[in-house]
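Retry 2 of 3 after timeout on previous attempt. Resubmitting structure tokens to design endpoint.
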């Protein structure tokens, strides 16, 4: 007798509605999944498998023992080169003010600092690699940005007791924080009408394998495990497609699903539901005005959410390349050992014709003599075709000699090589633009979440360009709704490091840039911090003095300070709007401090002039000419 469902009818109906929707979108996505599995298999070198549509699995067809199945994986190095090209782009997230008002400009500056803090805290350097890798393998991936209420360390507060309000009890809380994770396309399911503009989708599912212990600790509900689950949907699906009879871990895993639905007439605030196949774990209105996902396509097709992948276009050529190379080896084996025409009754031993020198082979001459079959080698066009296939694979991937550190024939000019490298990189222009748009949207979502959830002051620590520490307290309300974000990528300099260095040296030679420290920064000089160690230290000290004098604390100029550097940093600060808004008393602190530096500097100049006059007198015995 089946167990009786004791859940309220509303919960049963809701679960039925969600499971029906989920099953529909899962079936509609299956044709794309087959391509993703095949892409992953070819990237990792499993390139002789065949898809069986009746079983829905990949399998290796049987073959005789002499059959050669050589795999020369050209997809792996192509993806590796493209991954390097995509990851070498450095970018910054810039908060854009919504107006020219001073308050909005100041809020945007704070927003930019908060974005720098979150990028470092959330390890966006690692996420950039994950994004680019999944884009190249599956054609698309997603970044989920959300408020993690369990982030940060626990702290204890005193709250009124539920049963006796006059008494206080301790309660452990967490401040929570923004979090951002990269999701593979296997995790997300979209409504059938969705396109690459995922914010226009009617609803979105996210499915992720979790342990029953995780669900119990996070939601306080004991749920039944889902049969046949592996650690992740990707592992489960690929293992099934490869027909591997791996034992599934069934005792404590469950498929945890999240459902987002944008506002409708029936649900004007939208819906966000977390559930399993048997339980509703959490239900609320949409916590944000947007879906918490940003798509990162490699090359989009705007009429569907799942674009064509690079590997998908390389697979036919890769198959033909492996087949041709295998045929060459088979032909070599055939010509090495050959084939023999042996009369049926000539009584030649089956183990005859070995590679032993001086071997004697006995046969009955009455029935004929064994003869070597005349075999011909493969024609030259077979080898020519192999070269063509390899070049075509690299052409489709947009990788040529310069991207593989090879100098094209007939090219000797370094400028010409740099230009070719630039042209090779320009084929990724669309992907670079899509990455910029995606990063900007992720930054916008982070600031929107920060604005609504940073209620208490947060301590923000960032390191500036000059390695100076910037520490301040921040609340979400300080953004003043300035949450639009743009991406600042590199500059007008070329992508190639060699070409970039040549470009920068040209700026120095032509006198366009005369600051040696700036030149070293542009060249990415590895020892610039050592070369300018004392300069950076004085600049950092001067900025600290600026911060202290902004607070009304007098700073004393020291004789060992680099006075020219201090004067430069202090005067730049005095041009800032923040300084102009200081009280006259605090502005006077800056003037007194600067006067002290100028006094020290004048003394140094006077001392140097005396030394120069003395040295000139020793050399020429006269006085310096009068002006």
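Retry 2 succeeded. Sequence:
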């Amino acid at each position: 007798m089946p167990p009786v469902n004791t859940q309220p009818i509303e919960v049963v109906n809701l679960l039925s509605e969600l499971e029906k929707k989920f099953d529909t979108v899962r079936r509609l996505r299956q044709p794309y999944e087959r391509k993703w599995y095949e892409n992953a298999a070819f990237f990792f070198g499993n390139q002789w498998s065949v898809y069986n549509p009746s079983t829905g699995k990949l399998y290796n067809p049987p073959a005789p023992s002499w059959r050669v199945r050589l795999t020369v994986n050209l997809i792996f190095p192509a993806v590796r080169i493209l991954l390097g090209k995509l990851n070498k782009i450095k970018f910054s997230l810039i908060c854009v003010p919504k107006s020219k008002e001073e308050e909005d400009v100041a809020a945007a500056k704070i927003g930019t600092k908060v974005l720098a803090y979150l990028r470092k805290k959330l390890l966006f350097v690692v996420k950039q690699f994950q994004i680019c890798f999944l884009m190249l393998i599956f054609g698309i991936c997603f970044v989920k940005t959300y408020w993690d209420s369990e982030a940060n360390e626990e702290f204890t507060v005193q709250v009124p007791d539920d049963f006796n309000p006059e008494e206080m009890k301790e309660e452990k809380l967490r401040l929570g924080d923004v979090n951002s994770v990269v999701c593979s396309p296997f995790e997300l399911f979209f409504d059938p009408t969705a396109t690459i503009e995922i914010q226009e989708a009617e609803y979105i599912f996210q499915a992720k394998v979790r342990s029953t212990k995780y669900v119990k600790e996070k939601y306080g509900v004991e749920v039944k495990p889902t049969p046949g689950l592996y650690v992740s949907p990707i592992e489960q699906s690929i293992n099934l497609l490869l027909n591997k009879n791996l034992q599934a871990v069934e005792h404590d895993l469950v498929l945890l699903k999240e459902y987002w639905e944008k506002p409708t007439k029936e649900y004007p605030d939208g819906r966000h539901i977390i559930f399993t196949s048997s339980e509703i774990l959490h239900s609320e209105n949409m916590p944000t005005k947007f879906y918490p996902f940003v798509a990162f396509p490699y090359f989009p097709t705007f009429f569907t959410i799942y674009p064509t992948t690079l590997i998908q276009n390389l697979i036919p050529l890769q198959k033909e390349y492996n087949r041709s190379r295998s045929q060459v080896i088979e032909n070599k084996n055939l010509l090495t050992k050959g084939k023999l025409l042996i009369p049926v009754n000539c009584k030649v031993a089956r183990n005859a014709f070995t590679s032993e020198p001086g071997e004697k082979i006995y046969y009955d001459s009455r029935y004929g003599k064994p003869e070597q079959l005349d075999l011909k080698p493969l024609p030259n066009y077979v080898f020519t075709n192999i070269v063509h296939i390899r070049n075509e694979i690299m052409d489709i991937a947009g990788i040529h000699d310069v991207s593989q550190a090879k100098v094209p024939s007939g090219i000797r000019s370094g400028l010409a090589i740099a230009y070719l490298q630039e042209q090779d990189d320009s084929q990724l222009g669309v992907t670079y633009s899509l990455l910029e748009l995606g990063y900007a949207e992720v930054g916008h979502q982070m600031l929107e979440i920060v604005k609504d959830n940073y209620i208490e002051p947060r301590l923000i620590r960032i390191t500036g360009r000059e390695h100076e520490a910037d520490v301040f307290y921040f609340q979400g309300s300080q953004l003043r709704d300035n949450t639009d974000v743009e991406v600042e990528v590199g500059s007008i300099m070329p992508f190639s490091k060699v070409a970039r260095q040549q470009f920068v040296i040209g700026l120095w030679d032509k006198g366009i840039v005369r600051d040696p420290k700036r030149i070293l920064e542009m060249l990415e000089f590895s020892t610039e911090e050592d070369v300018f160690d004392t300069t950076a230290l004085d600049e950092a000290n001067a900025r600290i003095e600026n911060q202290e004098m902004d607070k009304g604390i007098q700073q004393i100029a020291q004789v060992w300070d680099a006075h020219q550097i201090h004067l430069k940093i202090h005067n730049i600060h005095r041009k800032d709007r923040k300084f102009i808004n200081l009280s006259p008393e605090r502005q006077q602190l800056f003037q007194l401090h600067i006067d002290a530096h100028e006094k020290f500097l004048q003394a140094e100049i006077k001392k140097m002039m005396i030394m120069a006059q003395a040295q000139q007198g020793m050399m020429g015995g006269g006085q310096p000419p009068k002006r």
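Attempt log closed. The chain has 17 helices and 18 strands.
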